[in-house]
From TrEMBL:
The lineage of its organism: Bacteria, Pseudomonadati, Campylobacterota, Epsilonproteobacteria, Campylobacterales. Residues 1-20 form the signal peptide. SMART domains: YceI (SM00867). InterPro entries: Lipid/polyisoprenoid-bd_YceI, TTHA0802/YceI-like_sf. This is Polyisoprenoid-binding protein. SUPFAM superfamilies: YceI-like. Pfam families: YceI (PF04264).
Length: 193
C-alpha cells in the first residue's frame, strides 16, 4: 500500500511539473469584469469583451511568475450602448487616444498579486487578491491553467475624474472601481513560439 501511495505521489509530482510554461489566455473562458456604484445606491457591472495576454507558470512549482494582459477599450460593454459610448469618450477612457488598458505582473506574494496597471497613459502600482485555480489536461489533450485576480482601484488615480454631484448628496459614479478577472490559459505548444 505504501508503494502505491509513493508511486501516486511521484506521478502527481511529475505531472505537476508538466504544467509549467507559458500559457496564452483563452478568451472564450476568460472574463475581465468591473463594477462601480451608481448614484450611491446600486452597482453597474461591465466588462471588456476583447483582450489578449499570456502568463507563465514555473516549471518546478507551478507558481505564477509572469502575467501580462491588454484590454481593448472599444470593447467595453455595460449592456447600455449610450453609457458605453460615454465611457469610450474623452470624458472617461478616451478610447481614441488611449485604446488599451494594460496590466503587467511584478510578483506574487502569498495570495497577493503586485503589478502595474496602465489606464489613459497613467501607470500605477496595484495590489490585487490572487487565487490559483489549478492545472488540468482538457479532453482534447491540451494543458490548461486557471487563476483569478480581484481588487479595487481609485479611478481618479488614472485621470478618470468625470462625475456629477447629486442633489441629495453624493455623486453619480463612485471613484472606487472593483475589478474581477477570471483567467483561463492554454499551454503554448513548442511550435507556437
Amino acid at each position: 500500500m505504501k508503494k502505491i501511495k509513493f508511486m501516486l505521489l511521484a506521478i502527481a509530482a511529475g505531472v505537476s511539473s508538466l504544467f509549467g510554461g507559458v500559457y496564452n489566455i483563452d478568451a472564450s473562458h476568460t472574463n475581465v469584469a468591473f463594477s462601480v456604484k451608481h448614484m450611491m445606491i446600486s452597482t453597474v457591472n461591465g466588462e471588456f469583451e476583447k483582450f489578449d495576454g499570456s502568463f507563465e507558470l514555473d516549471d518546478e512549482t507551478n507558481e505564477l511568475v509572469a502575467l501580462n494582459g491588454e484590454m481593448d477599450v472599444e470593447s467595453i460593454n455595460t449592456n447600455i450602448a449610450k453609457r458605453d459610448s460615454h465611457l469610450k469618450s474623452d470624458e472617461i477612457f478616451n478610447a481614441e487616444m488611449y485604446p488599451k488598458v494594460t496590466f503587467v505582473l511584478d510578483k506574487i506574494e502569498g495570495d497577493k498579486a503586485y503589478g502595474k496597471l496602465t489606464i489613459k497613459g497613467t501607470t500605477k502600482d496595484v495590489v490585487l487578491d490572487y487565487e490559483f485555480g489549478g492545472t488540468i489536461t482538457d479532453p482534447w489533450g491540451r494543458q490548461r491553467a486557471g487563476l483569478s485576480l480581484s481588487g479595487k482601484i481609485d479611478r481618479r488615480d488614472y485621470n478618470i475624474t468625470w462625475n456629477q454631484a447629486l442633489e441629495a448628496g453624493g455623486v453619480v459614479v463612485s471613484e472606487i472601481v472593483k475589478l474581477n478577472i477570471e483567467i483561463q490559459g492554454i499551454l503554448k505548444a513548442e511550435d507556437d513560439f
